[in-house]
Amino acid sequence: MTEILTRDAVDVVLADFFESRIRRADPLAAHYALLWRRLARSSVGGKRLRPRLLLDTHRAFGAPHPEDAAVAGAAFELLHTALLLHDDVIDRDVSRRGQRNLPAEFAADAADAGLTPEAASSWGDASGILGGDLLLSATYALVARVRPVIRGELTELIDEHLFRAAAGEHDDVAFGLGTAPATSESVLRMMANKTAGYSFAAPLCAGAVLAEAGERAAAELEQVGLALGVLYQLRDDLLGVFGDSRTGKSTISDLRQGKRTLLVAFAEGHPEWTAVRHLWGDPELDEAGAGRLRAALTAAGAYAAMTELIETQRQEAVATIDRTTLPNGLRHELVGLATRLAERAA
């Protein structure tokens, strides 16, 4: 049932939204219309995780006003796409879901037109930043369509978690540059703010808000969402180095960026890691060098420690779910989700 609602209702809202924006952009400039067409394409191919969480929660509490749930689910998907676009610019990434991302597409256009590499990169970055800004604005434009009685609460929920996501992103950049200490505690806080809040806690709470399920349900879902989101990010960081690149997720990007994750923190100080640490953060890192880094992370016990932490976090997430008073069907779905997040390959 949830899959049908996600595919048919949310995707219809998204398709109508992008068609309208492309139509409005066409008379303004060809490259602006192209930006909107590429934004539409950027929203295709994801897991639709956030709309599914929202719809599952909304359905568990009776699924009133389904049209509002579809619009809100689409708003969360736009929010996610916006933050991915900004993240790609910040991290200097050129691919997303196994394909060239939007900034890289515009940079390639500029390079093909004869612009210098620096100018082409600037055009790509500007397109990514503006595209993300447009989708952030559109997130609130969609939320404005829901019924007035819950519109304000939903808007405040999104604003709060976007505020936290920016704090988490700022932390992430600071850790990578060395302008803030990356302790285990601060890295876990960054995960909760940057990913867990807007990706898990917010859509779960939004489903409760849309169903007018009450403050207790929203508070419980906030805690569940944060636990699940940290679990998701821990697994994501492991896959970012030890995953299968055939799934479309890069397994070298985090190593090239020198991304400060708990996986790296677990290896710090070990002779095997120290011997190759100079390769970590090398923008020219090749697969051979990445292989040496992976071998050192394994020898240092970091891979095993990360795997153990993921299982511990899964158990904590399940315990958090079990302590709630949420509807039994929703609790069962969330426990199953915890297992899938801990074991996912992509």
TrEMBL record:
Cofactors, names only: Mg(2+)
GO biological process: isoprenoid biosynthetic process
A Pfam cross-reference name: polyprenyl_synt
Domain of life: Bacteria
CDD domains: Trans_IPPS_HT
Keyword Ribosomal protein: no
Source organism per UniProt: Myceligenerans xiligouense
Family: Belongs to the FPP/GGPP synthase family.
GO MF terms held by the record: metal ion binding; prenyltransferase activity
Name of the molecule in the record: Geranylgeranyl diphosphate synthase type II
Keyword terms, alphabetized: Magnesium, Metal-binding, Transferase
TM annotation in the entry: none
